[in-house]
Write a structure and sequence with these properties.
This protein is mostly beta strands. It contains two helices and eleven strands; from the N terminus they run βββββαββββββα. Helices cover 11% and strands 37% of the residues. The relative contact order is 0.25.
Length: 153
């Protein structure tokens, strides 16, 4: 059974943070190793979902097998509170785009945000994820201190 951290009353909800994941607080993403070496999957955290009150639409900007630079848009999202572009947290090649959650189907993330990776990247062999992303305890502390943004907006 995976270990979870919990924060009560976060935007009126109880939010869980799986401890085995890393987090990119600049855009409220979870990060985990993907299906082969030097690849990572990214998805929205439960805290990110709570902050925007849920998603209404998702459209991919980047293409499959496309090289993408850090801070370039990967996708555009509409939520109940805001519309924004999600920027790539690290340079790499887009190896996966979750077509099952494109369009209005993105709403499934609200129920199980850690089940649905949004995209995955192949990164340089020298990339160290702990140099860019934080662990669950540091992310929990950032949430408790209010040091987060609504998915980077």
């Amino acid at each position: 059974m995976e270990e979870m951290l919990k924060i009560e009353g976060f935007h009126g909800q109880t939010v869980f943070l799986p401890e085995e994941l890393l987090y990119y607080k600049a855009q409220e993403l979870w990060v985990k190793p993907w299906d082969r070496p030097h690849t990572y999957a990214f998805g929205f955290t439960q805290a990110g979902v709570a902050m925007v009150s849920g998603f209404t639409y998702l459209e991919f900007i980047a293409g499959l097998n496309e090289p993408i630079q850090e801070r370039r848009p990967v996708l555009a999202v509409d939520t109940y509170k805001v519309s924004f572009e999600l920027y790539c947290p690290v340079s790499g090649i887009v190896i996966y785009l979750n077509q099952e959650i494109e369009g209005e189907a993105v709403k499934v993330i609200e129920e199980e945000p850690y089940r649905y990776p949004i995209f995955a990247l192949e990164v340089a062999e020298t990339f160290d994820p702990r140099s860019r992303f934080i662990d669950a305890r540091a992310y929990l502390q950032a949430l408790e201190e209010g040091c987060v943004s609504i998915c980077g907006s």
